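sorry for the late reply, my laptop died twice this morning and i had to redo everyting from scratch. anyway the thing you sent over, i finally got around to it. pasting the sequence first so we're on the same page, its 152 residues, then the predicted structure underneath. double check i copied it right bc i was rushing
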Amino acid sequence: MSDDAATPAPTALNLEVRRLIRAKPERLFAAWTEPAQLKAWFGPRTVTCVEAQVDLRVGGRYRLGNRFADGRLVWISGAFVEIAPPRLIVYTWELEPGPSCIEKVTVRFEPRGGATEVVVLHERIPDMATRDRHGDGWDGCLDGLAAFVAGG
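ok and here's the structure:
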């Protein structure tokens, strides 16, 4: 299904998470789009990214495997809608296993002096419980990204 065909539910919710990270946009863009780097930091707290596949082009697909502490494996996949290195990535978001809905994620890397503000806008979220889980997940991801680019 193309992004244009993905019609959000009438009750769809949005979530925005921001984090100031001491790194240049180019460094953060690479960490977000290169599979080896993604595996090192992506995932909520206590989750390990065990697989990262990225075809970084508009229409290209990605697939990330997240293993939870209880052993459960969740896949996140989607297609790239817009790519403007090193400032912007827009992609669809689907969970496997999960409800059959296509969410949308926009990541902006905005320079702020010697740092970059990473802004994640997650749209088309079907309900409040999922929105809350995404909020916790993005907080953990951005903690991991900050630690990764700082060398920790």
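DSSP finds three helices and seven strands in the chain.
thats about all i looked at so far, will dig more tmrw
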